[in-house]
């Protein structure tokens, strides 16, 4: 059951979810990036460079080792997902910027994640580890589940705009259900060792989540002087595509232990994003 879910169900679900990201894109999203590149540049740098560096700092402070360290670092290498787009809408942030960052950073990820993840495995597991990340397979997988579906979704949006608009809320709900099902399956697969891993990785995952959201919001306020864009970058940097991280840790590497930190982070981020949305809306009504 667990192997079928991770090897077949998870890639198919991710293809569906990323098609939804493509269906949320509009031509004006790319026009906005071209006319206001600073906001996109700040968000992309925070996502692609600062977040992985922050993850390494958290791993060092909490002295995470082995699979737990690799799992948290792989999560930090993933782009945002439909969850960040949804919370950007709920918190009255810049939704266009959110969708643009999710999609365009997602195009970059297949070329950065396999190499950085392989480096992390050598760093935290050692060169003699039996677990090795197949670079070509990982790259092709990320292209198939992350890039091509976005392009297909954009074509669907252009051809059937009304269908794309109606499908968006359903796809967002579906992505949350898939993530929760995965987390339950991983917990079942780990059995009695689950609580041990949770105690080790939980504080680190929470710290990374809160620091990454604070970093994104602070950079947006400092460099862009825009409350809406600051909220967007906060959510894009703080809410990672946990489903993609679990595809790598469970589907490609087949390591339940490596999936613990991404699973814990994915659960915690819903709580922190909800609190941030409540705070942002309350701040906006003042």
From TrEMBL:
Compartment(s): Membrane
InterPro entries (UniProt xref): BilAc:Na_symport/Acr3, Bilac:Na_transpt, Na+/solute_symporter_sf
Keyword Transmembrane helix (UniProt): yes
Main location: membrane
Keywords: Membrane, Transmembrane, Transmembrane helix
Transmembrane residue ranges: 6-27, 39-62, 68-90, 97-119, 139-158, 170-188, 194-220, 232-253, 259-281
Domain of life of the organism encoding this protein: Bacteria
Pfam families referenced in this protein's UniProt entry, alphabetically: SBF
Membrane topology summary: Multi-pass membrane protein
GO-annotated cellular components: membrane
The protein's name: Bile acid:sodium symporter
Source species of the chain: Alishewanella aestuarii B11
């Amino acid at each position: 059951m667990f192997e079928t879910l991770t090897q077949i169900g998870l890639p198919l679900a991710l293809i569906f979810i990323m098609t939804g990201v493509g269906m949320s894109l509009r031509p004006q999203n790319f026009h906005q990036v071209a006319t206001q590149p600073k906001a996109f540049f700040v968000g992309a740098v925070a996502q692609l460079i600062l977040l992985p560096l922050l993850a390494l700092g958290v791993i060092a402070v909490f002295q995470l080792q082995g699979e737990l360290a690799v799992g948290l670092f792989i999560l930090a290498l993933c782009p945002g997902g439909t969850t960040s787009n949804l919370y950007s809408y709920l918190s009255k942030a810049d939704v266009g910027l959110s969708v643009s960052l999710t999609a365009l950073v997602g195009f970059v990820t297949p070329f950065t994640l396999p190499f950085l993840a392989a480096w992390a495995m050598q760093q935290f597991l050692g060169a003699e580890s039996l677990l090795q990340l197949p670079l070509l397979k990982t790259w092709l997988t990320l292209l198939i589940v992350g890039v091509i579906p976005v392009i297909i979704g954009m074509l669907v949006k252009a051809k059937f705009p009304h269908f794309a608009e109606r499908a968006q809320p359903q796809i967002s709900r579906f992505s949350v259900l898939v993530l929760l099902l995965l987390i339950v399956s991983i917990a079942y697969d780990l059995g009695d060792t689950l609580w041990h891993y949770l105690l080790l990785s939980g504080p680190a995952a929470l710290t990374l989540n809160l620091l990454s959201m604070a970093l994104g919001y602070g950079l947006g306020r400092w460099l862009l002087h825009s409350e809406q864009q600051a909220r967007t970058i906060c959510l894009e940097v703080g809410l990672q595509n946990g489903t993609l991280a679990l595809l790598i840790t469970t589907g490609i590497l087949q390591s339940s232990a490596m999936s613990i930190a991404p699973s814990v982070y994915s659960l915690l981020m819903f709580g922190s994003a909800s609190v941030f949305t409540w705070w942002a809306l309350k701040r906006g009504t003042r």
